[in-house]
Sequence to fold (372 residues):
Amino acid sequence: MSDNPVDITHGATSGAPELLARAAAAETRVHDGLSVAIDDFFLSDEGRLDERTRAALSLLLRALVETVEAEIRENGARLLSERGEVKLAATILRTEASVCDRLFRSGLLRDPALMTELMARVRQDAIAAALPLNAPDDPERPSLVNRFVQHPDRALASGAMAVLIAESRRRGDPDAGQLTQTDLPAELHFRLVWWVAAALRERVSEAADGALPVLDRALSDAAQRSLVAYDEGDRLEAAAMRFAAAIDARSDELPRMLVEALGDRRIVLFIALLAHALGVSYPLAREIVLESSADRLWLALRALDLSRETIAQIGFALCEADPRRDVERFADRLDTIIAVTGADARDAIAPFRLDPDYRAALLALARTSGAA
Fold:
């Protein structure tokens, strides 16, 4: 028997409520986990993300958050130092408490608009990387974009250079660390900046003591600086759309340019050329191109009076680059696609050219038709 017994009754009693709370939380987690597993089991193959897409999406989302976070931390620390809060400035620079996991747990990142953009970007990049790289007929001939860099028309030359710069900026691998910028649409970038600022405030607030108003002001000002410095026009998609508008390809030029853009693995330029030719927005053209069934894409290509050979080249390239597409099914459907006249295809895609908000309202109302 010990000569120095320890009374553990008080410790056990005081810890009991915490144990009970954890047990209750565990029961909730089991229930929630089962619900998620059931939803996943019954999800169709078309709706389920493959592991490569899931991993790429996770990496991209984390890189975006960390890019914004680093900028706000740096700007916030500088502002705090200038305002005499040196200790608080040092605290805000400590990166061991990243806000990324906090935002993941918060559910804020489940924002439909944000996830739509990121999933499209991931799929767009995956297809671009997997497209068959076609060797040019003339090995000395530069790629489509590079040829325009030296064009005598300044609008075309500057447009091509802007695409190359935007591509270089976008090319940063999330595995390697922070990105140069988020390259998000302005509204989504602004949303992400404020979420990160709020999460940083939560992380640092305990160290602020009585200087919480100073911290709030510094984080708010740092976020505002990030917003002011952000130019949505620098995005790769925006640069590609400006370039496509500057080219304004004629009907006899467009087929070659579309095929060449895919051959250069420039899926963004392919989408921009298609969007400009159809007179629709980049997001809608991207949605049409990335859709695995491709029904709307074939109609769009026929509406532009593209030939069987051109549609076949585009279709086979996309089938080779996207495992969700069935090349044999496409081959079997090629005659049916070509049987659709250009006039009928143009009538079918006419709604694509409606105001995006109007189209969204029509689609939202159509989804509720069963409740009418």
About this structure: The mean pLDDT is 88. Residues 261 and 270 are 5 Å apart (CA to CA). The longest helix spans residues 9-42. The two ends are 80 Å apart (CA to CA).
